[in-house]
Design goal:
It contains no helices and 11 strands. The protein has strands spanning 4-7, 10-13, 18-24, 33-39, 46-51, 58-60, 68-73, 78-83, 92-99, 116-117, 121-126. Strands 2, 4, 5, 6, 9, 10 and 11 form a 7-stranded mixed β-sheet that branches. A 4-stranded antiparallel β-sheet has the order 1-3-8-7, with no helix packed on it.
Protein backbone atom coordinates (compact mmCIF):
# COMPACT_ATOMS: atom_id res chain seq x y z
CA UNK A 1 0.00 0.00 0.00
CA UNK A 2 1.27 3.45 -0.96
CA UNK A 3 -0.22 6.73 0.16
CA UNK A 4 0.49 9.84 -1.88
CA UNK A 5 0.10 13.45 -0.77
CA UNK A 6 0.52 16.32 -3.22
CA UNK A 7 1.40 19.88 -2.32
CA UNK A 8 2.56 23.07 -3.99
CA UNK A 9 -0.46 24.04 -6.02
CA UNK A 10 -1.85 27.55 -6.09
CA UNK A 11 -2.70 30.61 -8.14
CA UNK A 12 -0.07 32.03 -10.48
CA UNK A 13 -0.03 34.47 -13.37
CA UNK A 14 0.65 33.30 -16.89
CA UNK A 15 4.37 32.94 -17.46
CA UNK A 16 5.00 32.12 -13.83
CA UNK A 17 6.27 28.96 -12.16
CA UNK A 18 5.17 26.46 -9.56
CA UNK A 19 6.75 23.34 -8.14
CA UNK A 20 4.52 20.49 -7.11
CA UNK A 21 5.65 17.85 -4.66
CA UNK A 22 4.24 14.41 -3.98
CA UNK A 23 5.30 12.64 -0.80
CA UNK A 24 4.84 8.88 -0.65
CA UNK A 25 4.52 6.65 2.37
CA UNK A 26 6.07 3.22 2.59
CA UNK A 27 9.50 1.75 1.97
CA UNK A 28 8.91 0.62 -1.61
CA UNK A 29 8.79 4.02 -3.31
CA UNK A 30 11.68 3.14 -5.60
CA UNK A 31 9.69 0.18 -6.92
CA UNK A 32 7.19 2.47 -8.63
CA UNK A 33 7.18 4.49 -11.76
CA UNK A 34 5.71 7.84 -10.76
CA UNK A 35 3.44 9.95 -12.89
CA UNK A 36 1.70 13.29 -12.87
CA UNK A 37 -1.75 13.67 -14.40
CA UNK A 38 -4.17 16.57 -14.52
CA UNK A 39 -7.87 17.09 -14.92
CA UNK A 40 -9.61 20.30 -15.87
CA UNK A 41 -13.36 20.78 -15.35
CA UNK A 42 -15.33 18.93 -18.00
CA UNK A 43 -12.25 17.13 -19.29
CA UNK A 44 -10.91 13.65 -18.83
CA UNK A 45 -7.81 13.05 -16.73
CA UNK A 46 -4.75 13.44 -18.93
CA UNK A 47 -1.16 12.36 -18.70
CA UNK A 48 1.39 15.08 -17.98
CA UNK A 49 4.72 13.41 -17.17
CA UNK A 50 6.24 10.26 -15.73
CA UNK A 51 9.59 9.12 -14.39
CA UNK A 52 11.05 5.64 -14.14
CA UNK A 53 11.95 3.94 -10.89
CA UNK A 54 15.58 5.09 -10.90
CA UNK A 55 14.82 8.48 -12.41
CA UNK A 56 16.85 7.68 -15.48
CA UNK A 57 13.96 7.90 -17.92
CA UNK A 58 11.31 10.57 -18.20
CA UNK A 59 8.44 11.15 -20.58
CA UNK A 60 6.25 14.20 -21.16
CA UNK A 61 3.04 15.08 -22.87
CA UNK A 62 3.65 17.24 -25.92
CA UNK A 63 1.67 20.07 -24.34
CA UNK A 64 4.18 20.47 -21.49
CA UNK A 65 7.43 19.38 -23.11
CA UNK A 66 10.14 21.99 -22.60
CA UNK A 67 8.20 23.74 -19.85
CA UNK A 68 7.71 21.07 -17.17
CA UNK A 69 10.34 18.88 -15.52
CA UNK A 70 9.65 15.78 -13.47
CA UNK A 71 12.19 14.51 -10.96
CA UNK A 72 12.32 12.23 -7.95
CA UNK A 73 14.32 11.76 -4.78
CA UNK A 74 14.06 8.14 -3.71
CA UNK A 75 15.82 8.88 -0.41
CA UNK A 76 12.98 11.29 0.44
CA UNK A 77 10.18 9.25 -1.14
CA UNK A 78 9.18 12.31 -3.12
CA UNK A 79 8.47 13.14 -6.74
CA UNK A 80 8.42 16.69 -8.07
CA UNK A 81 6.95 18.54 -11.01
CA UNK A 82 8.63 21.84 -11.82
CA UNK A 83 6.28 23.88 -13.99
CA UNK A 84 7.63 26.92 -15.82
CA UNK A 85 6.12 29.28 -18.39
CA UNK A 86 2.67 28.40 -17.16
CA UNK A 87 -0.31 29.04 -19.41
CA UNK A 88 -4.01 29.45 -18.57
CA UNK A 89 -4.65 26.11 -20.26
CA UNK A 90 -2.47 24.44 -17.61
CA UNK A 91 -5.21 25.18 -15.06
CA UNK A 92 -6.36 21.87 -13.58
CA UNK A 93 -6.24 19.64 -10.56
CA UNK A 94 -2.89 17.86 -10.65
CA UNK A 95 -2.56 14.31 -9.35
CA UNK A 96 0.46 12.19 -8.71
CA UNK A 97 0.22 8.45 -9.15
CA UNK A 98 2.31 5.33 -8.62
CA UNK A 99 2.59 2.49 -11.11
CA UNK A 100 4.15 -0.80 -10.03
CA UNK A 101 5.62 -1.64 -13.38
CA UNK A 102 7.03 -5.09 -13.96
CA UNK A 103 9.85 -6.47 -16.03
CA UNK A 104 11.35 -4.17 -18.63
CA UNK A 105 8.50 -1.67 -18.67
CA UNK A 106 9.79 1.76 -17.66
CA UNK A 107 6.94 4.21 -18.17
CA UNK A 108 3.25 3.99 -19.01
CA UNK A 109 0.98 6.89 -19.87
CA UNK A 110 -2.39 5.21 -19.36
CA UNK A 111 -3.97 6.32 -16.09
CA UNK A 112 -5.69 2.95 -15.81
CA UNK A 113 -2.30 1.28 -15.30
CA UNK A 114 -1.53 3.30 -12.18
CA UNK A 115 -2.18 1.65 -8.85
CA UNK A 116 -2.22 4.48 -6.32
CA UNK A 117 -3.33 8.11 -6.51
CA UNK A 118 -3.05 11.22 -4.42
CA UNK A 119 -5.94 13.52 -3.61
CA UNK A 120 -4.85 16.19 -6.07
CA UNK A 121 -3.72 19.80 -5.82
CA UNK A 122 -5.30 22.73 -7.66
CA UNK A 123 -3.22 24.77 -10.07
CA UNK A 124 -4.81 27.94 -11.43
CA UNK A 125 -3.06 30.09 -14.02
CA UNK A 126 -4.55 33.53 -14.62
CA UNK A 127 -4.16 35.38 -17.89
Amino acid sequence: QVQLVESGGGLVQAGGSLRLSCAASGRTFSSYTMGWFRQAPGNEREFVAAISRTGGTTFYADSVKGRFTISRDNAKNTVYLQMNSLKPEDTAVYYCAADRVMGTILIRRDAREYDYWGQGTQVTVSS
